[in-house]
Amino acid sequence: MSVQKKKARAGFFIILPSLAFIGIFVYYFIFLTIRTSTSNWNSFTSLLSGEYKFVGLRNYQRLFNDPRFQTDLWNTLFFTLFFLAGCIILGIFLANIIDKKLRGSSFFQNLFLFPMAISYVVTGTVWGWIFAPGNIPTSPQGINLLLENLGWSNLQWMWYTSTQSIGKFNLALIPVIIAATWQMSGYVMAMYLAGLRAIPEEMIEAAQVDGATGTQLFWRIKFPMLRPITLSAMIVIGHMSLKIFDLIYAMTGSGPNNVTDMPAIYMFEQMFRSNRYAIASAIAIIMLIMVAAVIIPYLYSSFRGER
Amino acid sequence: MMAEKTNKTSLTIYYIILAVFTIFYVLPFYVTISTSFKPFEEVSISNMWKLPSKFSIEGFKAAFARLGPNLKNSFYLTIPATLISAMIGSINGFALSKLRFKYSNIVFALILFGMFIPYQSVLFPLIQFFQAIGLYGTIPALIITHVIYGIPITTLMFKNYYEEIPNELVEASSVDGANIWQSYTKILLPISMPGFVVVIIWQFTNIWNEFLFAVTITSDPTKQPITVALVNLAGSQVVQWNIQMAGALIAALPTLIVYIILGRYFVRGLLAGSVKG
């Protein structure tokens, strides 16, 4: 056997255990969850009896007719949209300022990245307190108190306990989006910063020699060069956002009228509080499908690009 | 080196913008730190934005009394899980970058997909599995979980790292008669330190901060990691805010320290986790 072949065989055998573990703990477990999601296991007794009854897509049907789950899907959509927009706009904006290499810019860079090192649970706990409305107008708390101290009492509102909405967008999501953006925007900034630093110096200089202004430089040269980064950022933030759990759980829970409810929260309650395993599994599979719709094309295209 | 000419006015504007954002990013830290150092009698809603008038560590004492065991659990869990998953990632990365076999790209993609899945989609079978083998509710169960679901990201990071290392280096050693195991331990492993630092920081931070597995796999409060204990602390109404904020700080401190000391590597890990090579 040639050295090359021997190496290839060794490579395969080295990876085999990991592949087996992933095969069981990812793919087989997903299969089991799908199986549960199409079963009648919606109580502790039906699970314990172990008798599996296939009910087809009935659990999915129930979910899509369930007002709470419909709210969850709208919340996910709006949360993802604004969370993404917030991170990308802030990320690209801050990266461009940091890239100017002002004095102290590395300090600011580190500061903006700080939140990334912290758990969502901590973020949720702390921002949950900051945005807690208190009793307005008599005893405001958090931001509302700050607004009162600044003399802007008319800006006080119920924050994440508000049941107001514009169309399908629950305003209570705004504080949650702010907290999530606070956590992740530094990450996106770091991605853009890496992208900006990868743009060849000569390219920028050439444009400057041709008399390009700062704005032109950004829109004509930098922005197009940063498109792959924007795509990566959208994938990373987008897939995080579709499965957001810790932050919401620690910060607001499902909120009044489920204004801040998300599929992951609903799934958790159904699975661990109500013992409705089949419904919970169906929610999990819907979450998986949403994430896969984003990730599989991305994986596919990046692997095709490699060849 | 300044690629773009920056005049004085725009310089001022940039600093003002940075200052405004600094307030936004620092705000939660300010509230957390100032509250956690307030004495009990000073913790009321009406002065939550004020600095403590008297510096006190009562809040920290109380928080430690309640969260101390969970802090220990987090270390027991995070350290082995981090080290084992880094080791596995290194070996896998070696195989996928230096010992390429037919379909190795497809195998890699199959493994990588595990990084993105919502863990909700494997949670129920996972719990049943741990119940079946009698490990449910224990820290070893959490370690196993983090090691297995850490395989994709650590493999990705090490694969990218080893691909930067010239193949000739490994090939030369095999010409000299080294077997594959020796090529790995004698050639690749000694120059893997920077890769290990990045992966270990990344895994340490992620596992420390993780919540979903922690809250569903451990139900006994004495076995829960600090993230779960913090949420439970916040959930109980009677707890004073200075205790809660001290608790948040205690839960955040280990990863913050890692970030402050090894920030450079932390950023490298972030980018390796997002921009796939």
UniProtKB/TrEMBL annotation, chain A:
Transmembrane stretches, start-end: 12-34, 77-98, 110-130, 172-194, 229-252, 277-300
Compartment list: Cell membrane
UniProt keyword list: Cell membrane, Membrane, Transmembrane, Transmembrane helix, Transport
Membrane topology: Multi-pass membrane protein
UniProt KW Transmembrane helix keyword: yes
Domain of life: Bacteria
A single GO BP: transmembrane transport
Ranges of residues in domain ABC transmembrane type-1: 73-298
Pfam family, any one: BPD_transp_1
SUPFAM superfamilies in alphabetical order: MetI-like
Annotated GO CC locations: plasma membrane
Family: Belongs to the binding-protein-dependent transport system permease family.
PANTHER family for the chain: ABC TRANSPORTER PERMEASE PROTEIN
Protein name (Swiss-Prot/TrEMBL): Sugar ABC transporter permease
Organism of this sequence: Petrotoga olearia DSM 13574
UniProtKB/TrEMBL annotation, chain B:
Keyword line: Membrane, Transmembrane, Transmembrane helix, Transport
Subcellular location: Cell membrane; Membrane
Main subcellular location of this protein, as a coarse class: membrane
Membrane-spanning parts: 12-31, 75-94, 106-127, 133-151, 187-205, 243-267
Topological category with respect to the lipid bilayer: Multi-pass membrane protein
Every ABC transmembrane type-1 domain range: 71-262
Membrane among keywords: yes
CDD domains in alphabetical order: TM_PBP2
Keyword Cell membrane found: no
Pfam families: BPD_transp_1 (PF00528)
Cellular component GO terms held in the UniProt record: plasma membrane
Any one GO BP annotation for this protein: transmembrane transport
InterPro entries to which the protein is assigned, alphabetical: MetI-like, MetI-like_sf
Family recorded in the similarity comment: Belongs to the binding-protein-dependent transport system permease family.
UniProt protein name: Carbohydrate ABC transporter membrane protein 2 (CUT1 family)
Organism: Petrotoga sibirica
